[in-house]
Amino acid sequence: MRFKKVPLSSRKKHTPVNSSYLAKLWPKKPKFYNMQNESIALQAKVFLYHLNNANNENGFRAKESWKFSQVSEQGKADIEHDFFPTVSVQVDPKKIHDFAASVLLQLKEQPKINVPDLNVSIQTGSEYFIAFSPDRMIR
């Protein structure tokens, strides 16, 4: 089957669409993912997703475990300097205890992640929730 060639001058011209109409169809998305605006349960689910990815990507064995801490920015930098891999998230200090409880509750659904000690160490002025493996120190 052959297609009929149509001269360029006879093709239909499209009129521009109103920009406010396009804004309703495609609202602007944030440039980065801001966890401050999300619910605590969703934040915990996203954190565990990243923890599970780090667990799989770094080849964790069944005997290797994770430990959780609530730390300040300096504590986070110290842990990231001493251990690899780490998974951290900045959480509103008013909601960090609820976030930790939600993570520990949803952790039961993650059979591959080994956390023998379900206690979370807490540092005063903590704004970061971080997971690290004490078995994998950077030498």
From TrEMBL:
Protein name: Uncharacterized protein
Superkingdom of this protein's organism: Bacteria
